[in-house]
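Service request form, structural biology core

Requester: graduate student, group of Dr. S.
Request type: structure prediction, single chain
Budget code: on file
Notes: please return the result as structure tokens.

Sequence provided:
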Amino acid sequence: GCMLLSDLGAEVIKVEPLEGEPWRLTSQFMPNESKAYQSLNRGKQSIAMDLTNPTCQEAIHRLVRTCDVVVINARPDVGARLRIVYESLKKERPDLVYMDSTAFGRQGPWAHRPGYDIVAQAASGLLMVRGYLDEDGYPALSGPTAPADFTTGYAIAWGVCAALFHRQRTGRGQMVETSLLINALTVQTGAF
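Core staff response, request fulfilled:
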């Protein structure tokens, strides 16, 4: 989602853990760099911070004062633990647009579960609907793309743009939500 916003001209600052995000380490062509990382993070600036450190949390709060949008992609409990939930950040910037992307949404029995594309495909039935079975008859991936991840990325970018338009019209920020599960369900249309 943030890659798409960068493609549209947004200045994007990605906050990574001190060791860098895991995609940096997948099929590295030089230390801490991979094609997957570069393709998903083109146009972004990165800073490395330990968000469990209160000093770094304060630095994020100061940074938010200069930001139009914050995008978080984590379980709902992570934002609260790191002091980067909408309620606390909007105190720093009242017209903030806050995009909250989770695996399964903020409510319901799976809200606090972690999830990745393949998990959302399985939970939504997308793996089965696509009709690809392995040699043992189990649902299999149809290729190297991650449909739940990519459709969620578009939902993030679209939701942020809509919230910025709303803010331009009203002067008010807001929290916008999406999830891997809802996007994996949405792309199934008639099959769903």
